[in-house]
Amino acid sequence: MTRDAVMSAHRFTFYLPSLSADAPAFELTGEEHHHLARVLRLAAGETVAATNGRGLLVEAQLTAVDKSKSGARVVRVLQDHAPARRIVLAMSLLPRAHFEVAVSQCVEVGVTDVIPVLAEKCHAKVWSKAVALRVERIAVAAMKQSGRAWLPSIGDARTLASLAGEIASGRYGRVVVGDAGAPALPSGAHGGDAMAVVGPEAGLTDAEVARLVAAGAQRASVSSHRLRAETAAVVLVAALSRDV
Question: Within 13 A of 57's CA, how many CA atoms are on the CB side?
């Protein structure tokens, strides 16, 4: 079954990190059970989907829904593979709500990794464990809502200088820096892994852009209009995801 077919069935997807492809059945507890039983009010006999966030997506039929847990029988494996390409979002820190919007929508589009970046003009300067956990919850929710089977990793915050060093190593493949003053992003059969680098609300400094370009990144504009940072992130990730 194709992903489009899975989505057209309107199944709710639940996240179970321990799920394996050979499991005949599974149980949901905690927040996932609460969402199933109390929010969605699903009952035994209904069909759901479950993912381990590492490429496995199964269809299952609920066998029991009680106060503390839900049981389900696996009907079939719908998908069991990692994404064909790695699409990384290196996102400069934004005010919390804006950063979360960027992460949520980029997860829906297909990003596989998120790297928070501490750029010079970032208004937000703190990347704590609590912030990272909240962003991960946002990513989980977006993965489930979109029917994806891959939960992006949320990396530790990097300085832009540190990120440039990693880019120079070649580990990210094609790297594109969103820059409204640059030529439009060219289309073509690039394929392979890619990284989208997005600056803060006030933009990256000329020195930061130059450092990234020196490391091997490409400057590109993704719109003829001025975009919010979180919007630019979604547009750039979408462009890189389909650029094959």
Answer: 24
- Enumerate residues 6+ apart whose C-beta is below 8 A from 129: none
The answer to whether the beta carbons of residues 200 and 72 sit under 8 Å apart is: no
Task: Say how far apart CA 21 and CA 25 lie, in whole Å.
Answer: 10
Mean pLDDT of the chain: 92
Residue pair 200/177 in contact by the 8 Å Cβ criterion: no
What tokens does 113 get? 């990794």
Which H or E run contains 214? Answer: helix 206-214
Among 198, 183, 182, which residue's Cα sits nearest to residue 231?
198
Residue 6 and residue 49 in contact, taking contact as beta carbons nearer than 8 Å? yes
pTM (two decimals)? 0.90
- Which phi-psi region, left, alpha or beta, contains residue 188 (left: φ > 0; alpha: ψ -120 to 50)? left
DSSP 90-142: EEE---HHHHHHHHHHHHHHT--EEEEEE-TT-S-----HHHHHHHHHHHHHH
Instruction: List, in sequence order, the alpha helices (H) in 159-228.
Output: 160-168, 206-214
Measure the CA angle with vertex 26, ends 47 and 7; round to 5°: 35
Q: Is 184 exposed, middle or buried (0-12, 13-18, 19+ CB in 10 A)?
A: exposed
Question: What is the C-alpha to C-alpha distance for residues 57 and 40, in angstroms, rounded to an integer?
Answer: 20
Q: What is the mean pLDDT of residues 164-183?
A: 93
Three-state SS at 207: helix
